[in-house]
Amino acid sequence: METHNLLFRIPPREIAFFTFVMESYEGVASARTVDRKEGLVELMVSPQQVDDLQELLKDLSGYVQIELVTSSME
Questions:
Q1: CATH number of the CATH domain containing 34
Q2: Domains in the chain, number
Q3: Are strands 4-9 and 30-35 parallel, antiparallel or unpaired?
Q4: pLDDT tens, 18-49?
């Protein structure tokens, strides 16, 4: 299965909240913490779910500072 990997930087204290929200939207994206001290979280998303993920991240950005570091979609 093809997936896109996106690396985000968020405040380390928000990692649990961020990953909990991602997990609650089953099938949109899988999250894993890359570096908890730096606040780096990787999301793996299927091409079919990219639009849903973008909407979710837009909504979440009102609660958590989210910075895209790298993306395999570029």
A1: 3.30.70.100
A2: 1
A3: unpaired
A4: 999 999 998 899 999 999 999 999 999 999 99
Cα 2 vs. chain centroid, distance in angstroms?
Answer: 17
Dist CA 21 CA 31 (whole Å): 10
Q: For residue 22, give the nearest of 39, 47, 42 by alpha carbon.
A: 42
| Alpha carbons 55 and 35: distance in angstroms, whole number | 25
pTM over 0.85: yes
Helix H or strand E encompassing 57: helix 50-60
CB 7 within 8 A of CB 34: yes
Pairing of strands 67-71, 4-9: antiparallel
